[in-house]
Design goal:
With about 190 residues, this protein is α+β, with helices and mostly antiparallel strands. The chain has one domain. It has three helices and six strands. A four-stranded antiparallel β-sheet has the order 2-1-3-6, covered by helices on one side. A two-stranded antiparallel sheet has the order 4-5. β4 and β5 form a beta hairpin. α2 packs antiparallel against α3. It is elongated, with a radius of gyration of 28 Å.
Length: about 190
Amino acid sequence: MRNVVLWCRRKLGSRESGQSLVETALMVPLVLLLTFNAVNFSYFFFVAIHITAAPHMGAEYSIQGFSTPGQLNLPSAIPPSSGPDLSVSTLTYQDMAGLGGSANALVQVCTQANGVGKTAGTSLCKQVNPNSVTFTFPSPAADPEPGSFILNQVDVFYTVSPIIPAGVFGVSLTPSLQFHRSVVMRAMN
């Protein structure tokens, strides 16, 4: 029994417990940095999926129109001054509703109702810019078959910041990213 007590005293007073504490203190910041950046990286993918789906749904809505057969006119590009808001830009913003700061996104809509003209090189597009975001959308391409089809285009520009701003000594390891997605669909004239 005495040998067991002596062995326990030697183990408790040994230097191994201090070594483990130093190793833990050195590894915890590295593990936290990797974990935080994994969360930010997955959030960037989440944003990319939403930003890709939103203009696609908006362009599809601008071609197909309302869900009821009694409503034959196509939706407007931007919200109306009065009445229910069934515009293409509103649907695009609703698709991005899960993103933080999605109301600050810049949306440009070219629909059949006010969209791309039948002569090559002319386009009439409407922008919804809630906070005066500075971004110039590229002009939509002219329809290669004017008169037969009309292009419907929805562009979205969104700046995403990381959820967890991880950095070392004031230097950010995950910068803000800017996404620009554009979807062009053709509608029969």
